[in-house]
Automatic annotation (TrEMBL):
Entry similarity comment: Belongs to the D-isomer specific 2-hydroxyacid dehydrogenase family.
Keywords: NAD, NADP, Oxidoreductase
Name of the protein: Glyoxylate reductase
Limits of the D-isomer specific 2-hydroxyacid dehydrogenase catalytic domain: 32-306
GO MF: glyoxylate reductase (NADH) activity; glyoxylate reductase (NADPH) activity; hydroxypyruvate reductase [NAD(P)H] activity; NAD binding
Enzyme category, top tier: oxidoreductase
Residue ranges occupied by any D-isomer specific 2-hydroxyacid dehydrogenase NAD-binding domain in the UniProt entry: 106-278
């Protein structure tokens, strides 16, 4: 393939944008909004992310599209089945973000249980002068349930073991490579766990997997941590459970309608809210960026992807 035309669906950090502009024949969709309708047949490769995706409607306007290279591991915003039916190759950036996302999960467990963010505000607002912050909950030695025992789930378990946590997991099927306990019944896992961490993919198969019944099983002393996709949790059921005190707390890096977050969560000291920063470190984002370009170059040179979906 010589001098392919690359469509950039959405904005990325400046370094990434500049590198794309420098190295490829690039069309920036937000700058040429009518390009797909008028000249979509010219597009060879799409560069996108889990945030921007690539819809079935967009695919239909690119009859000669050969590959989609996505920044991140989430692919529920990409019309994967339509792409596969047309033989369009798809790549993501797995593995390079596992450690930072797992670190974020552990950080949310600790912050939510110990309420470090809320107690920080207690000091900053001068409330310490009026009294000590209330007691919080211990993390070490507790029971951790992990929903989704893939690459990131296993990294979370590795870290949790350092806190002497008892670990079980829920997956579509048992993983023979691990000695951790498998729980086929999600509600049973939630009932057993002190912390329930979500590390599963998004998409239709996991939409609202964590519903009111699972939250009730986790209970008034349980804490939910989500570093997967906002769609996995029934957000209204989560808000209701937290308001009613039937759920102990939540640490959330992802939401159903990002960047919009339910305002009811803002004042809750037992809730920690992050702006989807699980992989947002200099080191990890550079590694993700490099892997996108490695996939692009490999496909252009050899017609192959390094990390195909």
């Amino acid at each position: 393939m010589t001098r392919p035309t690359v469509l950039q669906v959405g904005r990325f950090p400046p370094r990434f944008n500049e590198r794309l502009q420098r190295d490829y024949q690039l069309i920036r969709l937000w700058e040429q909004k009518e390009f797909l309708a008028e000249r979509g047949a010219e597009i060879d490769i799409v560069v996108t992310s889990a945030r921007y995706g690539c819809t079935a409607e967009q695919l239909a306007r690119m009859p000669n599209l050969k590959a989609i290279c996505s920044f991140g591991v989430g692919h529920d915003s990409i019309a994967v089945e339509e792409a596969k039916a047309r033989g369009i190759a798809i790549s993501t950036t797995p593995d390079v973000l596992n450690e930072c996302v797992a670190d974020t999960a552990i950080g949310l467990i600790i912050d939510t249980a110990r309420q470090f963010s809320a107690s920080d505000q207690h000091v900053r607002q001068g409330k310490w002068l009026k009294g000590q912050y209330p007691l919080t909950r211990k993390v070490s030695g507790k029971r951790l349930g992990i929903v989704g025992f893939g690459r990131i789930g296993k990294e979370i378990a590795k870290r949790a073991a350092g806190f002497d946590m008892d670990i079980r997991y829920h997956n579509r099927r048992p993983d023979p490579s691990t000695e951790y306990g498998y729980e086929a019944d999600l509600k049973a896992l939630a009932s057993w766990a002190d912390f329930l961490v979500l590390a599963c993919p998004g998409g239709a198969s996991t939409h609202h997997l964590i519903d009111a019944e699972v939250l009730a099983a986790l209970g008034a002393d349980g804490i939910l941590v989500n570093i997967s996709r906002g769609s996995v949790v029934d957000e209204q059921a989560l808000v209701t459970a937290l308001q009613a005190g039937t759920l102990g707390g939540a640490g959330l890096d992802v939401f159903e309608d990002e960047p919009r977050v339910p305002e009811a969560l803002f004042a809750m000291p037992n809730v920690v809210l992050l702006p989807h920063v699980g992989s947002a470190t200099e080191e990890t984002r550079l590694a993700m960026e490099n892997l996108v370009f490695d996939n692009l170059d490999a496909f252009i040179e050899r017609g192959e992807l390094i990390t195909p979906l």
